[in-house]
Amino acid sequence: MRRILSFLVVLSMLISPVIAMESTQENDSRSYVLMETSSGTILKEKNKDLSVPPASITKVMTLLLIFDAVEEGKIKWDDLVTVSEHAASMGGSQVFMEAGEQQTVKDMVKCISISSANDATVAMAEHISGRESDFVNLMNKKASELGMNNTVFKNACGLNIDGHVSSAYDVALMSRELMLKHPDITQTSTTWMDSIIHKTRKGESEFGLTNTNKMLKWYNGITGLKTGYTPEAKHCVSATAERNGLELIAVVLGGVNSKTRFREAGALLDYGFANYELKKGPQAGEVIAEVPILKGLKDSVEATVKKSVNFIAAKSEQSPNYEYQVELNPEITAPITKGQEVGYVVCRLDDAEVGRGILVSLEDVDKSGLFNLIKSLFTKNKNSENSESEVKDQTIDQDQSTNLDN
């Protein structure tokens, strides 16, 4: 009996460290970032700039470029996309399209966003750029514009290739761009199940699509966005969510299993919603500044922000020291057109910059000169005459009204 007890004690001593180690590893992704969407403020991070394989989260950039192409009029949602031999041969996560099969851009996007389809992704890359390699050049160009300094794309879909890397911070940057610029993506990214119709030489058949983002089933406020997995990248997710106007992005790269990446992303989002709130800064349409103008028919023009400026603040700060500063462009000279940039506004919270917005003119201001001066005087006189006429008409109406009453 003693031998059995001794054996159990020794066994428990040997197993306990292993269990503890596995438990630690299970909750230890390679890297993560929690970002507030509107400002891009990082609320929490680990190894945010570590370059690692991103797997199918790569498709966030592909989706961004697809939506950009539609917005720019280069393609349309109802355009038919023909699947090439190359696209049909992708393997991995796919919807089993055949070479020569055609689907609309809209349905291709459903396949990419919901089912993470590699064949649909490459077909769209070829549809936009002719060749996948040319589309990848666009991806890297856009990444550079967004400041994704630890990213190199080698393909459009995220299948593992040496040197195809990104970082948690970079993934958050492109996720933010997609969510801000094309918020309609949430209509697809939050769809749990859908379908497409395969049209091939064999006839027509329905193919079901199920979303790879399981957080849609349990996380309150989830709005997207993309999952990824390869043996090299491990389990990844870029999870976006919104509550009470506060939008967050939680990126987890290199999770040891699927459930863990979702749980860790959920914990990051919970942390953000529990500890931070969105504050309103200067809003579009509000008069923010009176801007002096040189050589204009008016000495100044009212200006507002091009886009409303909001910022993030910790809930623990009861009375944060908030202010904003207006910085105008030097020597603003007429003519000025409505919407013209005239400077910018900087929002500060406890002396730290938390937001920045472009100032634009709220109206046109013509250049001063003899012709414009005469035109201005004529307009003023005409308006004055119209005003006097309106006063007389009102007086007559009042007199007639009085006679009728009597």
Gyration radius, rounded: 29 Å
The global form is: globular
Helix fraction, binned, reads 25-40%
Main sheet summary: 5 strands, antiparallel
Structural class determined from secondary elements: alpha+beta
- Tell me the number of helical segments per DSSP (H or I, 4 or more residues long): 10
Q: Please list the strands of the largest sheet in the order they lie side by side.
A: 2-1-9-8-7
Output mean pLDDT: 86
Taken as a percent bin, the fraction of beta residues is 25-35%
Task: Give the structure's gist in a few sentences.
The chain has helices spanning 2-26, 59-71, 85-88, 105-115, 118-129, 132-145, 168-181, 185-189, 258-275, 370-405; strands at residues 31-36, 42-46, 80-82, 102-104, 193-200, 203-210, 222-230, 234-243, 246-255, 276-280, 289-292, 300-305, 310-314, 322-328, 341-349, 352-361. The protein has 406 residues and is of the alpha+beta class.
Protein model, in words:
The protein is an alpha+beta fold and 406 residues long. The chain is 37% helix and 27% strand. It contains 10 helices and 16 strands. The chain has helices at 2-26, 59-71, 85-88, 105-115, 118-129, 132-145, 168-181, 185-189, 258-275, 370-405; strands spanning 31-36, 42-46, 80-82, 102-104, 193-200, 203-210, 222-230, 234-243, 246-255, 276-280, 289-292, 300-305, 310-314, 322-328, 341-349, 352-361. A 5-stranded antiparallel beta sheet has the order 2-1-9-8-7, sandwiched between helices. A 5-stranded antiparallel beta sheet has the order 11-12-16-15-14, with no helix packed on it. It has a two-stranded antiparallel ribbon with strand order 3-4. Helix 4 (105-115) packs across helix 5 (118-129). The longest helix has 36 residues, at 370-405.
